[in-house]
Amino acid sequence: MGTARIRTGAATGTPAGQPRGGWTSTAWSPLLLAAVASVGLVLAALAVAVDGPVAVVLVGVAVVVALAGLQISRVRVRVDAAGLSVRFGPWGWPRQTVPIARIAEAEVVDVHPSQWGGIGYRVQPRQQVTAVVLRSGPGLLVRRRDGRRLVLTIRDPQTGAGVLNGLVRAEAAGQPPVPPG
User: Fold this and answer.
1) How far apart are CA 17 and CA 76, in angstroms?
2) Radius of gyration of the CA atoms of the chain, in A
3) Which of 51, 60, 117, 122 could be a cystine partner for 131, CB 3.0 to 4.6 Å?
């Protein structure tokens, strides 16, 4: 689930109907939220069933699990002339950025949670790839110039890849970014 959009119009400082070269997409995982809520409820129920320090530890673990799950269940991606920005959770933290000069290309790939070990934030250091997997389906693959890759399961990755590739080409040519249109 999520949204994707390209900003247009006077508010962006560009003529009406012309994208400003910025694109955003937000995605979240109801499945991940349900799983985290279930674990939190089980831990809370166990905390009620026991006394003393064990109950306090269980409540603490339930809070940590809930906050961590909330943080990785939502991702907001922005592509603009500065590059790629990925923000996690409702507070937009942590934030991961990749400057446009460090991006080689972007493409759309088919993503299945089973190929990544499930839903969530995944790192495969030997393959130099990081993935934010919130669902199955098309995702955005960003190849960096240093060989590292970032995979994001977001809404409308085709548009994101197109905008990002246009900005990368403009950067490589030494031109100011020209929005697709």
Assistant:
1) 23
2) 19
3) 122
d(CA 91, CA 83): 20
pLDDT of 13: 35
Name, of 21-35, 38-52, 117-131, the range with top average pLDDT.
117-131
pTM as predicted: 0.76
> Tokens 């493409």 sit at which residue?
107
Sign of the Cα pseudo-torsion (103, 101, 155, 179, in order): negative
Comparing CA positions, the residue from 35, 143, 84 lying closest to residue 130 is 143
Q: Which residue has the higher pLDDT, 8 or 49?
A: 49
CA gap 88, 86 in Å, rounded: 7
Return the sign of the alpha-carbon dihedral for residues 123, 124, 130, 133: negative
Tokens encoding 95: 């934030």
